[in-house]
Amino acid sequence: MITRTRPLLWLPLCVLLVAVAAVLSVMLGARTVSPGDTFAALVHGEHGSLARAAVRQRVPRTGLALLVGAALGTAGAVMQSLTRNPLADPGILGVNAGAALAVVCGIAYLGISAPEQYVWLAVAGAGAAAVLVYVIGSRGRGGATPVKLALVGTMVTAALSSLVSAVLLPRIDVVDTFRFWQIGGVGGASTSGMLQVLPLLAVGFVLSLASAPGLNALSLGDDFATGLGEHVARTRLLAAAGAVLLCGAATAAAGPIGFVGLVVPHLVRLLIGPDNRWVLPFSALGGAALVTLADVTGRLLARPGDMEVGIVTAVIGAPVFIAVARRQKVREL
């Protein structure tokens, strides 16, 4: 009874939190807009007012923050359940670094410059990095243990980040194009850019949510899951494909934003328990709220300038990462 009622109790509050974050995102920034002007701009358009024009310009940014946050929160929950590793996160497991290396190579050697062109490169890089980390982490005694995957992911992230620097150093002309993307932010959001990544995000969400019952079975162990009639290899493949699509598309749209996929699933499990059928959609809501509020915080702290959302999430996520790593109760999922 508890596992069914808890999510239903928290669901309205989580939806309300996302709605409040979205409203604050269109109201606050270098210019604070009143609720009346915000409503008029959203319903009736700009009509020449600077305040209303600011609201209209913030709408794509808010939409991208919601999408990217939902994608990273869901992907983090899938990765943690799939690897049974509470430290799993797209940034820690090298997925973001793989996407970054693919994008910088595309900019340097293929001449791409539009964010819309980053999408497939980022997805390919994210997928290759995820496979590399899992293959290396699976070797040796004990297989892919949580600690081994975290260590291998950190090693691969460091190696790929070094390769990114190696590509950039002799190409000063590429640095300016790449550096703002690398920090991770939603300030350059556009409707056309979001439309490019929406299909990939939609497929990623469907695959991830569809794999939730299978992830519950895998949490009992491969042998037990097989005994329950679960196709272990197929479930892992679908869940991994969904997570990689979400990470790759989100990273292509906003750059590598760290710690969202690590922090949000743990907070969600504290609220509603370990059932992945609820953890995944709640992680999407939590990730959307976190990234949007982090973007608003960055705008207010650096006003009238702008602090990228990746910096704010790193400040929030680093102490949470340390707390998770030290907490005995969440070392096994």
Q: What secondary-structure arrangement, pairings included, does this model have?
A:
Blueprint (H helix, E strand, L loop, with lengths): L1 H26 L7 H10 L5 H34 L11 H16 L7 H21 L7 H23 L3 H12 L7 H20 L1 H7 L3 H6 L4 H23 L5 H13 L3 H26 L7 H18 L7
Please describe what this structure looks like:
The chain is mostly helical and 333 residues long. Helices cover 77% and strands 0% of the residues. It contains 14 helices and no strands. The longest helix has 34 residues. The protein is globular.
Short key terms for the protein model shown above:
333 residues; mainly alpha; 0% strand; globular
Which word captures the global form? globular
**Could you give the order of the helices and strands?**
HHHHHHHHHHHHHH
Q: Which band does the percent of strand residues land in?
A: under 5%
- Measured between the Cα atoms of the first and last residue, the distance is 22 Å
Oligomer: single chain
Structural Rg? 20 Å
Low-confidence stretches: none
Brief rundown of the structure:
77% of the residues lie in helices and 0% in strands. The chain contains 14 helices and no strands.
